[in-house]
Structures are given as C-alpha cells and as structure tokens.
Amino acid sequence: GQLQACGGGLVQAGGSLRLSCAASGRTFSNYVMGWFRQAPGKEREFVAAISRSGGNTYSADSVKGRFTVSRDNAKNTLHLQMNSLKPEDTAVYHCAAATKYGSRLQKDYDYWGQGTQVTVSS
C-alpha cells in the first residue's frame, strides 16, 4: 500500500493551501489518518488526525482554527485545508495511517507518505 501526498507549494502569509493524500493498496476506511510536518532542523510534529469514519478529528494547538482535516472514504483520499498560513507553518507535510485513534505519536502510525513541501513567505 502507498500514501501519496500532494498539493504543497509556495504561498504568502495569510494565504491558503489544500493538501491531499491518495491511498492505495489497503482498505482506506480501516485506518485513522493523520498529518505530520517537519520543518528544517526540527523534529517531525503532529498536525491533525481524523477517525475512520471522518466523524471525529483532533489537531495540534498551533493549527486549531486554521487547519481542517477531512477524508473521502469513497475516493480513498485525505485532505488538509490550511488557512491563514504563517511562515512557521513552513515544513514538509506527511500523511500517515494508524490503527489507533487519538495518538499524536509518530510511533503509533504504521504507514507514511513521502511528503509535500509547504513554504509560507512573510
């Protein structure tokens, strides 16, 4: 199975981007899906996650009110709508799949995509 993230790019502060993650090879709806990000020189950090049905989400305090995670199980696709972007949001964003809901820890995510670069200019 694979996870393929896309949708990154260069945007000015205050702008928006929508990331997508296409899943293949596994039953997408069996997995909790999450987004993580890694800025240069920093540890990879949790951004947001969504339950198998899409009915529940949770996110990092740093993105609450600005980022929204969603999924379309019929299309095996995960999304991250990012609004009011800040320069500190600059990072490579990765999608990941887990069997455990509620975790913000990388070790609880079993499958990872290769990441998409988001750069926010000031």
Structural class: mainly beta
Task: Name the average pLDDT.
Answer: 96
Uncertain segments are: none
Biggest sheet layout:
7 strands, mixed
What is the chains' assembly state?
single chain
Continuous helix count: 0
| Basic shape | globular
Q: Order of SSEs, N→C? A: EEEEEEEEEEE
Strand content: over 45%
The Cα radius of gyration reads 13 Å
State the share of residues found in helices, binned by percent.
under 10%
Distance between the ends:
37 Å
The number of distinct β-strands equals 11
Describe this structure in words.
It is globular, with a radius of gyration of 13 Å. It starts with a strand and ends with a strand. It is mostly beta strands and 122 residues long. The protein is built from no helices and 11 strands. A hairpin with a 6-residue loop joins strand 5 (45-50) and strand 6. Helix content is 0%, strand content 52%. Strands 2, 4, 5, 6, 9, 10 and 11 form a 7-stranded mixed beta sheet that branches. A 4-stranded antiparallel beta sheet has the order 1-3-8-7, with no helix packed on it.
